[in-house]
Specification:
This is Phosphate-binding protein. The chain has 13 helices and twelve strands. It has 331 residues and is an alpha/beta fold. The strands form two sheets. Strands 1, 2, 3, 4, 6, 7, 8, 9 and 12 form a nine-stranded mixed sheet that branches. It has a three-stranded mixed sheet with strand order 5-10-11. The mean pLDDT is 92.
Length: 331
């Protein structure tokens, strides 16, 4: 028996040593489902192993441009200036949909606090500094809110989650649009920074009075309270998989690209800060590693979508999924 185990371990070790290793880096927003996909795919294809570093969308784009990874990942499409820096054309492949949840920690503030866009913008502009500010109390007349400070937490690294959050604030606040704008990195008027979704999650979990934005998976897995956010139709919507899917009704990709925005959808059931997340494929000369990467991507956008809901992501809309599959099959 022992001899058989030794032989089995040796065989597995040899297999691992000869497995193709694919390196990737980027967004932390989809890390939960990417980890699941990499694990499940490697179980079915033990000759392919993945090393993914969730260093943020900005970091993933930088590593892609430096050619230190086989593919990048980002929650925001690359800017034209970044595309020009890349040695090769880069294909954006939408992988899944998610919510940027507004999460907070205050024992005296009940779950599903209601906020609207202008009020959230004023908190991040540093104009609203107390939990019982009149603007927040007006939206939550049934709650007795505490007279304590709000501690704003935001990302310190280049982040696609930040880009999607800022896109929303630009859409709902002219002052935010003029003073701050949007991007993966911002000149924040207030708050303290933390790296990655893991970093902001840890800071909010351990600090009373904090508010931040993070992917829904981090909020739910860590039992952090989230805001019901008023959407364009005037309905307060909790961040859920169903509300994210509603934001993608009628979604059409931009031009020939497979990219586009789900921010502040007009659908009455839509969560207003919903987003696509992308794998960034450099269109390098096709070799065996490229073939394996394309096989994985096709698996992830078909069979892999079945893992989305249990991890608090929404599968790609059917029409978009057809276009993405067709594109990947053509590579």
């Amino acid at each position: 028996m022992i001899r058989k185990l030794i032989i089995l371990c040796a065989a597995l070790s040899a297999l691992s040593a000869h497995a193709m290793k694919i390196n990737a880096a980027g967004a932390s927003f989809p890390y939960a489902i990417y980890s699941k996909w990499f694990s499940e795919y490697s179980k079915q294809n033990p000759d392919v192993q993945f090393n993914y570093q969730p260093i943020g969308s900005g970091g993933g784009i930088r590593q892609l441009i430096k050619e230190t990874v086989d593919f990048g990942a980002s929650d925001a499409p690359m800017k034209e200036k970044d595309k020009k820096k890349a040695k090769w054309p880069v294909l954006h492949v939408p992988m899944v949909l998610g919510a940027v949840a507004i999460a907070y920690n205050h024992p005296e503030v009940k779950d599903q606090l209601k906020l609207d866009g202008p009020t959230l913008a004023d908190i991040y502009l540093g104009k609203i500094t107390k939990w019982n500010a009149p603007q927040i109390q007006k939206l939550n007349p049934e709650m007795k809110l505490p007279e304590s400070d709000i501690l704003v937490v935001r990302r310190a690294d280049g982040s696609g989650t930040t880009k999607n959050f800022a896109d929303y604030l630009v859409d709902v606040s002219s002052e935010w649009k003029q003073r701050v704008g949007t991007g993966k990195s911002l000149r924040w008027p207030t708050g303290i920074g933390a790296k990655g979704n893991d970093g902001v999650t840890s800071m909010v979990e351990n600090t009373t009075g904090t508010i931040t934005y993070m992917d829904l998976a981090h909020a739910r897995k860590n039992n952090i309270k989230t805001v019901a956010l008023k959407n364009k139709a005037g309905v307060y919507i909790n961040p859920t998989v169903e509300a994210v899917s509603a934001s993608a009704k009628g979604f059409t990709p931009k031009g020939k690209e497979l990219t586009g925005s789900l921010i502040n959808s007009a659908d009455k059931d839509a969560y207003p800060i919903s987003a696509l997340t992308y794998i960034l494929l450099p269109m390098v000369e096709k070799d065996q590693k490229r073939v394996e990467i394309y096989k994985f991507v096709e698996w992830a956008i078909t069979k892999g979508q079945n893992y989305a809901k249990e991890l608090f992501y929404a599968p790609l809309p059917e029409e978009l999924s057809k276009k993405v599959v067709k594109k990947v099959k053509s590579l």
